[in-house]
From TrEMBL:
Subunit structure: Interacts with TIMP1 and ITGB1 and recruits TIMP1 to ITGB1. Interacts with CD9. Identified in a complex with CD9 and ITGB3. Interacts with PMEL. Interacts with KDR/VEGFR2; identified in a complex with ITGB1 and KDR/VEGFR2 and is required to recruit KDR to ITGB1 complexes. Interacts with SYT7.
Family listed: Belongs to the tetraspanin (TM4SF) family.
Keywords: Cell membrane, Disulfide bond, Endosome, Glycoprotein, Lipoprotein, Lysosome, Membrane, Palmitate, Protein transport, Secreted, Transmembrane, Transmembrane helix, Transport
Annotated protein name in UniProt: Tetraspanin
Lineage of the organism: Eukaryota, Metazoa, Chordata, Craniata, Vertebrata
Domain of life of the native organism: Eukaryota
Length: 244
C-alpha cells in the first residue's frame, strides 16, 4: 500500500514538473523568436538608440536558447528519474533566479543613468544623419514609428550638420509628408511632431513595463515552483530507493 502511495506521489510530482518544464520551454522559444525578429526588423533602430543596444536582440535570443537548453535537459532528467541530473537541473534554475534578481535590481538602480546615456548617444547620432545610410534609415524609422522629432524636441536638428546645411528637419518628423514639410519652420511648425524621441521611448517603456513585469514574474514563479518540485521529487525518489 505504501509502495502504491509513493508511486502515485511520484507520478503527480513528475506530471507537475513536466508542465512547468513545458511552460519554461515555450517561454524560451518565444524569447528566441522575439530576439530573431527584433534583430532582423529593428536592427537599424537599435543602432540609432544606442550603439550598445544593437546587441539587445542577440542577448534576448541567447537567453531564449539557454532556457530551451535547460528545459530540455530537465525533461531528459525527469524521463530518466536520474538523481544527479535532477540536482544539476535544480542548481541551474537556482543560478538563473539569482542572475535575474541581480539584473533586475541593477536595471532599476541605473535607469536614470541609462536615460542620460541614451540622450547623449541619440544627440550624437543625429549629427551623422544623411552621412551613413544605416543611421539615416534608423532615425527615419524611429521618428515615423514613434511620431517624434529629434532627441529632446525638433530644435535638436538645428544643431546638426543636416539641419545647418538644409535649414530643415527630415520629412520623417512631419505628421503629414509633403514636398517641403520640414522647411520654413520659423513660420509654421503645426505639421511637425513636437515631442522628442527619447521621451517617447521612455513613455513607451513605462507603458509596457507592466506587461514585461508580468512576464518576468511568471517566469520567476515557474522557476521557483520548478525548484520546489525538484526537491520534492528527489525526496520521493530517495524514499523509494530506501524502501527497495
Amino acid at each position: 500500500m505504501r509502495r502504491i502511495t509513493s508511486r502515485n506521489k511520484l507520478a503527480v510530482i513528475k506530471t507537475c514538473l513536466y508542465l512547468v518544464d513545458l511552460f519554461y520551454w515555450i517561454t524560451g522559444v518565444v524569447l528566441m523568436c522575439i530576439g530573431i525578429s527584433a534583430q532582423t526588423k529593428l536592427h537599424d533602430t537599435f543602432v540609432v538608440i544606442n550603439e550598445a543596444s544593437s546587441g539587445v536582440p542577440v542577448i534576448i535570443t541567447f537567453v531564449g536558447v539557454i532556457i530551451v537548453s535547460i528545459s530540455s535537459f530537465g525533461a531528459i532528467a525527469l524521463m530518466k528519474s536520474n538523481h544527479a541530473m535532477i540536482k544539476v537541473f535544480t542548481g541551474m534554475l537556482l543560478i538563473i533566479i539569482l542572475i535575474e534578481i541581480v539584473v533586475g535590481i541593477s536595471a532599476y538602480a541605473y535607469r536614470e543613468k541609462l536615460h542620460r546615456n541614451l540622450l547623449r548617444s541619440f544627440l550624437k547620432t543625429l549629427d551623422e544623419y544623411n552621412l551613413e545610410s544605416q543611421i539615416t534609415r534608423g532615425v527615419d524609422d524611429l521618428q515615423r514609428n514613434f511620431q517624434c522629432c529629434g532627441a529632446q524636441n525638433y530644435t535638436d536638428w538645428f544643431n546638426t550638420t543636416y539641419g545647418y546645411l538644409n535649414s530643415a528637419v527630415p520629412s520623417s518628423c512631419c505628421k503629414t509628408v509633403t514636398r517641403s514639410c520640414g522647411r520654413n519652420l520659423s513660420k509654421d511648425t503645426a505639421n511637425i511632431n513636437q515631442e522628442g524621441c527619447v521621451e517617447k521611448l521612455k513613455k513607451w517603456t513605462e507603458d509596457h513595463i507592466a506587461f514585461i513585469g508580468a512576464v518576468g514574474i511568471s517566469i520567476g514563479f515557474a522557476q521557483i515552483l520548478g525548484v520546489l518540485l525538484c526537491y520534492m521529487l528527489l525526496r520521493v525518489l530517495k524514499e523509494d530507493y530506501a524502501n527497495l
